[in-house]
């Protein structure tokens, strides 16, 4: 049997197996959003304070008070069909909730921004996956004290939050393309309609000409580690649009980009003292490998093909794992994977491939770190003779996207990392993480004493752009623009490869996502293959490329197991930044270096 707790709105919700001690938003803030999910049709105000009994108050605030329990029938393990959430439903939910009020250092539970989760199972208990470090973390006392700021009339002498009067920035102005109202899906440099937007210091004050939900007085002060409620609402709704996880107690929180989030996640899940290791693609994101190594967490590579990680190889490695043959490392319980436009190979897992990987991880009880910075840069499978038509509207765009691992996750074993770096601006150092309530809560306990959450500048600027200016419709149109732009860039690079690379020794495929092209050089045809190692041949070609004026990434940099001799010769090229002309010239220079090395 499962337990249920009564929420302030009168609805029943299943209680997770492990208690979450995280901060949540103030009672009125939560209760109005819960009311908005019902069909009462009444306009809600975030300023009002509902009447709650003490148990409901404890549920909302997230304190340790015991919850009243009632017996519920067992919920089937198979959830109801994962219904697509629409932008219209989200806008209606917001209309009923009213204006969001989340002042300085406001706590926030992302669950209040979700739609109805009835019929969905709760996540499985993943506490046995936690590291010792993660298991003993306590909530930050000063952050928890901020919950009392909701008390009407309270005068705070507690937290050291500076007075915004002393912030020497009164406003920030931006000029951005208007993708919400202008139907032209053209890149920013040639977009016909730009609009000027301004963020003021006191835009949320009742005396403001138009009262907003977020301003500089809030964003530039100290905040909770989970990020601002204003931006969490947007990414939570966006996650519903794209993935709509099929279990009930999933949550989101903001991150300082996916690299920082990965380091925190590895520390949350892995212990070198218990001989932990992680699995990943045999060629993997170099920075991810360099993140794990200093933590004493070795990485083991799973063979790949044109769709990335091979499920049967993953299952074989796990089923036959022998610590004595793997440096005394116990059977891995974490998989790190980049399913779309994998870095460095550009491989993209198809729908069936993703389902197979998820099922194997469920079978062997692995936590999946789904790192998806390139997810929205999905590209047509061919460039000739007839390219696949691009989506013409945002509904078709969402329908065209590959299913995420998160959308298949009925167990709560997927930790998905999204980032604005590849689709907006990398300098924002801002992304978000989606996982079960239990795992997000542990993640935040670390963030509270590490980075304390993303920059307030980044949060308020992206909120102004994404939520207040573009909205979900405008943001999806922007992603459609990027998809078309990167398709053209990829095609330019592929045409240059066809023209300038010696196909008798170099081979490549058509990447389906991302910004990288993986090139395979047949080292067995190299005239020095009997006297030089693959690494030596690779270095010779790399140095020749530098001499000729082109920088390309060496494939060996991305090997998951650096201690194992490579069996193939690869290079990675990117079509992300160079102009079409420079890209073509770079491939011509690369072709010259390869011809010289192979003496063609």
Describe this structure in words.
- This protein is an alpha+beta fold and 600 residues long.
- 33% of the residues lie in helices and 13% in strands.
- It is built from 16 helices and 18 strands.
- The strands form six sheets. Strands 6-14-13-12-11 form a five-stranded mixed sheet. Strands 15-16-18-17 form a four-stranded antiparallel sheet.
- A hairpin with a 2-residue loop joins strand 9 (304-305) and strand 10 (308-309).
- Helix 14 crosses helix 16 (580-598).
- The longest helix is centred in the last third of the chain and has 45 residues, at 456-500.
- It starts with a strand and ends with a helix.
Features:
600 residues; alpha+beta; 5-stranded mixed β-sheet; 16 helices; 18 strands; globular
Strand order across the biggest sheet?
A: 6-14-13-12-11
Binned, the helix content reads 25-40%
Strand segment tally: 18
What is the residue-mean pLDDT, rounded to a whole number?
85
Summarize the biggest pleated sheet.
Answer: 5 strands, mixed
Count the helices. How many?
A: 16
N-end to C-end Cα span: 71 Å
* Percent of residues in β-strands: 5-15%
């Amino acid at each position: 049997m499962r337990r249920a707790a009564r929420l302030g709105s009168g609805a029943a919700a299943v209680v997770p197996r492990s208690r979450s001690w995280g901060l949540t938003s103030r009672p009125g803030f939560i209760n109005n959003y819960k009311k908005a999910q019902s069909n009462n049709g009444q306009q809600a105000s975030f300023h009002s304070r509902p009447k709650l009994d003490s148990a409901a108050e404890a549920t909302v605030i997230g304190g340790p008070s015991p919850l009243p329990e009632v017996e519920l029938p067992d919920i089937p393990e198979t959830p109801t069909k994962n219904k697509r959430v629409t932008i219209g439903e989200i806008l209606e939910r917001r209309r009923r909730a009213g204006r969001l009020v989340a002042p300085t250092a406001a706590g926030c539970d992302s669950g209040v921004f979700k739609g109805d989760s009835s019929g969905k199972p709760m996540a499985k208990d993943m506490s046995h996956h936690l590291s010792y470090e993660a298991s003993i973390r306590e909530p930050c006392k000063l952050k928890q004290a901020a919950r009392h700021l909701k008390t009407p009339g309270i005068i705070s002498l507690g937290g050291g939050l500076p007075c915004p009067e002393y912030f020497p920035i009164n406003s920030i102005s931006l000029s951005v393309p208007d993708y919400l109202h202008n139907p032209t899906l053209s890149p920013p440099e040639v977009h016909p309609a730009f609009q000027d937007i301004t963020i003021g210091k006191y835009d949320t004050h009742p005396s403001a000409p138009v009262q907003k939900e977020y301003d500089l007085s809030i964003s530039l002060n100290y905040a909770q580690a989970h990020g601002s409620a204003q931006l969490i609402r947007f990414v939570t709704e966006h996650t519903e649009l794209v993935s709509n996880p099929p279990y009930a107690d999933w949550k989101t929180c903001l991150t300082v980009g996916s690299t920082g989030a990965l380091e925190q996640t590895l520390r949350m899940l892995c212990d070198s003292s218990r001989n932990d290791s992680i699995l990943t693609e045999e060629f993997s994101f170099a920075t991810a490998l360099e993140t794990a190594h200093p933590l004493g967490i070795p990485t083991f590579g799973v063979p790949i093909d044109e769709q990335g990680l091979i499920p049967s190889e993953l299952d074989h490695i796990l089923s036959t794992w022998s610590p004595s043959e793997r440096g005394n490392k116990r059977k891995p319980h974490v998989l790190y994977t980049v399913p779309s436009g994998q870095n460095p190979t550009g491989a993209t897992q198809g729908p069936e491939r993703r389902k197979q990987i998820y099922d194997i991880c469920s079978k062997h009880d692995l936590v999946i770190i789904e790192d998806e910075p390139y997810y929205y840069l999905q590209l047509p499978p061919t460039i000739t003779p007839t390219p696949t038509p691009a989506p013409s509207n945002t509904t078709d765009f969402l329908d065209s996207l590959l299913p995420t691992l998160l959308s298949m996750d009925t167990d709560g074993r997927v930790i998905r990392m999204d980032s604005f770096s590849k689709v907006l601006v990398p300098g924002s150092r801002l992304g978000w993480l989606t996982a079960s309530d239990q795992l997000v809560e542990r993640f935040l306990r670390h963030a509270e004493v590490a980075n304390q959450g993303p920059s307030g500048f980044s949060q308020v600027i992206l909120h102004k752009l994404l939520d207040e200016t573009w909205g979900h419709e405008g943001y999806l149109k922007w992603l459609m623009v990027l998809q078309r732009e990167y398709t053209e860039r990829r095609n330019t690079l592929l045409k240059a490869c066809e023209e300038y690379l010696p196909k008798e020794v170099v081979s490549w495929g058509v990447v389906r996502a991302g910004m990288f092209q993986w090139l395979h050089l047949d080292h067995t045809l190299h005239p020095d293959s009997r006297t030089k190692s693959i690494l030596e041949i690779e270095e010779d070609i790399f140095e020749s490329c530098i001499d000729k004026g082109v920088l390309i990434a060496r494939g060996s940099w991305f090997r998951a197991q650096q201690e194992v001799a490579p069996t193939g010769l690869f290079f990675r090229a990117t079509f992300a930044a160079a102009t079409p002309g420079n890209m073509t010239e770079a491939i011509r220079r690369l072709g010259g270096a390869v011809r010289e090395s192979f003496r063609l």
